[in-house]
């Protein structure tokens, strides 16, 4: 190796190309300008916090079925308030970094990947210096307004948890009642025993979802209709009567081997209809909980802890299948609250 190619100890890897003269920002030389900028940034954070509060107000004050310019009024308000608030926080942080945080060039040479103890101490020193230069401690107005806005950002998340559905202890009743017909959930056609073959499974729902008033308008619509259909969804199966082993008190809950169960898995509420007609087993596609519909919907495999709720059936004067009551058991996932409420129902019975 020639002398020209020998490394030079402590030499810079490349020649300093030269940097233009540093230009100071107005906020660096004028404290009044810096104060004015700090107030503008704080105002952004404060408005962001107010928008997050507006999100919560819109959730409770605007009807879920209301419209605005053809859109959902509630969703429009959610987008404006939550999106606007997050935008203001982002813009405020960028302005803070560009106009008020430390502004000077730094050069750092490459070094081995493994850091020495001295390097770690130096890094912590630099981090603390960066925190000091950011003005986070010296500018309480910006700091406090940002922390307040970020704290209020959590409120929309808490409010939206309410949209996961009713609390578990509020699901002990559905719209099913004595005399209500079972209908096919695709065609809306009422079901007769002659329409169901042995081994067949039909997804169904209560006839009330198709009822109309005197003007021909649906009785149920919008979110109310969706909630009713979700909670009252059923499966209707038919097997040979000799394959059914009802528990005591459930001897008359079927009609010629036709049984009706909730479509909602008692584990975490997944809709189920995977039917093994030879074994009379119903399998949940989410976590493989398996129910024996010939044996009162009992769990034979998987994480579910409660049998599938069964709906007692009968026939009306025209020979259509009807419910004889609501589900005696609680419909829904097996949360602790459900176990508590189920015990209350059992005690009353």
Automatic annotation (TrEMBL):
Keyword terms, alphabetized: 2Fe-2S, Cell membrane, Disulfide bond, Electron transport, Iron, Iron-sulfur, Membrane, Metal-binding, Oxidoreductase, Respiratory chain, Transmembrane, Transmembrane helix, Transport
Residue ranges, annotated region (Disordered): 1-22
Keyword Zinc-finger attached: no
Annotated TM spans: 43-62, 74-97
Ranges of residues in domain Rieske: 253-322
One Pfam family here: Rieske
Source taxon at top rank: Bacteria
Membrane association type: Multi-pass membrane protein
Cofactor requirement: [2Fe-2S] cluster
Bias type Basic and acidic residues, positions: 12-22
Intracellular or extracellular location(s): Cell membrane
Function per UniProt: Iron-sulfur subunit of the cytochrome bc1 complex, an essential component of the respiratory electron transport chain required for ATP synthesis. The bc1 complex catalyzes the oxidation of menaquinol and the reduction of cytochrome c in the respiratory chain. The bc1 complex operates through a Q-cycle mechanism that couples electron transfer to generation of the proton gradient that drives ATP synthesis.
Record family assignment: Belongs to the Rieske iron-sulfur protein family.
Protein name: Cytochrome bc1 complex Rieske iron-sulfur subunit
